[in-house]
Amino acid sequence: MSAESHSLYFQNGEGFLSASINMGLPEGQTLQLDTMTVELFLDLHSQPCRAVYLFAKKANIPFEYKKVDLASGEQYGEEFGQISMVRKVPVLKDGDFILTESIAILMYLAEKFSTPDHWYPAEPQKRARVNEYLSWQHKAIRESGSKIFWFRAMVPLLTGAPVDQERMDSAVEDLTSSLTIFEEKFLQKRSFILGQDISLADLVAIVELMQPVGTGLDVFEGRPLLGEWRDRVKKELGESLFDEAHHVIMNAHTLPQELEDKGMLEFLKPRLKKLFN
Predict the structure, then answer these.
(1) For 138-238, where are the alpha helices, taking DSSP H only?
(2) What are phi and psi of 2, to 5 degrees?
(3) For the chain, which end, N or C, has fewer CB atoms within 10 Å of the first or last residue's CB respectively?
(4) pLDDT per position as a tens digit, 147-165
(5) For the whole model, what pTM was predicted?
(6) Where is the GST C-terminal domain (predicted)?
(7) Architecture of domain 124-271
(8) pLDDT of residue 271 exceeding 70
(9) CATH class of the domain comprising 5-112
(10) Distance in angstroms (rounded) separating the CA atoms of residues 89 and 19
């Protein structure tokens, strides 16, 4: 991993300060961080990583941001393998405690740092509604949205052939169906999934919907209810933070060249062929 420099976010009473830390300390010296600071291993190309990053910053959680460059294959390196045998991001490290899976990480952060109740409510039925969405979305919006991202942005370059139109149409149809369920069941006419307040459910939803948008497919077009919800989420998070987290995915057209520059294209081709054949 890129261990020479990381970003540390910590509370200063009013919000967060961000600093680049030189990790090349003299032998025998260690960097002393607040015991409440957690390490988050992330790459913001990843939807789950963006959810964790947005939550940690918006909820004033002190954390050290350690970038894992997926385009360089750092997740397959020995150093990251010692942290997580799963070799996926995000990963949370809290002292000797290591946690994978974004939903588990979000819940852990909410409980450990006693974040405002609206994020992950203590009231059983409200919490159940958040859990309901989080349990549903990964085989619905996430699955079809991720397929569309790979079909539109990556697969033609990596395989040397266009994606079969029938498969593309099927993925778009699946996403369209999921968006309808999202609007009619989970959102309805409320401001957010739980009502007047944003929650982890909204956070996980927005990062997934922005993934196909990064390839030029505007999933909000023709869906005013969905578009208005997106605008409220963006305003609640803060436009600057929202845009910061989504900058890399909104420039997804540069990812193939980045992979080529880093020598990862040939490495990924057989993996993708196996995945999408």
Answers:
(1) 141-153, 155-159, 165-181, 200-213, 224-237
(2) -80, 85
(3) C
(4) 999 898 887 777 777 788 9
(5) 0.84
(6) 123-276
(7) Up-down Bundle (1.20)
(8) no
(9) alpha beta
(10) 22
